[in-house]
Write a structure and sequence with these properties.
mainly alpha, 2 strands, two-stranded antiparallel ribbon, 10 helices, Hypothetical protein af1432, about 70% helix
Length: about 180
């Protein structure tokens, strides 16, 4: 993929998510927050940047893998699939299966794990800004398994540090 493809993918992501909301915000806000994080460390990886914009379309919309391939590369689709939750009746079942798959993912999917960390960090930052303490608690409980599944040596240590602070500070009365 090229730099010129990114605005096209962004428009499609907005179209494909339609009226979906991210809490009280348009879904575009979440996509922009994740994209910005990924861009801060991989500004020239256009497959990964496109995947940052599309990372939720397979699990949140009726968009298919074939739809993505009409506008994106195989590598971009691989990244989107790598961060898409496995099916399951409950969050616990979905995340358990997803984290197991991510833990065992091939090295070629490592950039997708960076995307997954960016997604989690964006979610935690937004939950903090919006006062969603229960969402932060959910992420805090999941974090040990999440970290074991997606951590790779080349990921920004600052992101993991910020996640630690976001997921612990409120619960030990440091950051109120």
């Amino acid at each position: 993929m090229t730099r010129e493809d990114i605005p096209i993918v962004a428009q499609l992501a907005v179209k494909w998510h339609g009226d979906q909301m991210y809490g009280k915000h348009p879904y575009l806000l979440h996509l922009a927050e994740v994209y910005t994080l990924v861009h801060s460390v991989r500004p020239d990886d256009y497959d990964l940047l496109a995947a940052a914009l599309l990372h939720d379309v397979l699990e949140d919309t009726d968009i298919t893998e074939e739809d993505i391939l009409e506008v994106c590369s195989e590598k971009c689709l691989m990244y989107v699939k790598a961060v898409t939750d496995e099916p399951g009746e409950t969050r616990e079942l979905r995340k358990s299966a997803t984290y197991l798959r991510m833990y065992n993912s091939p090295r070629e999917e490592d950039p997708a794990m960076l995307l997954k960390v960016a997604d989690r960090l964006a979610n935690c930052r937004r939950a903090k800004k919006d006062g969603k303490r229960s969402k932060l608690e959910m992420y805090r409980v999941e974090n040990p398994t999440f970290q074991k599944a997606v951590h790779r040596p080349d990921q920004p240590v600052e992101w993991w540090g910020e996640l630690f602070v976001l997921l612990t500070a409120d619960f030990i009365n440091i950051n109120r």
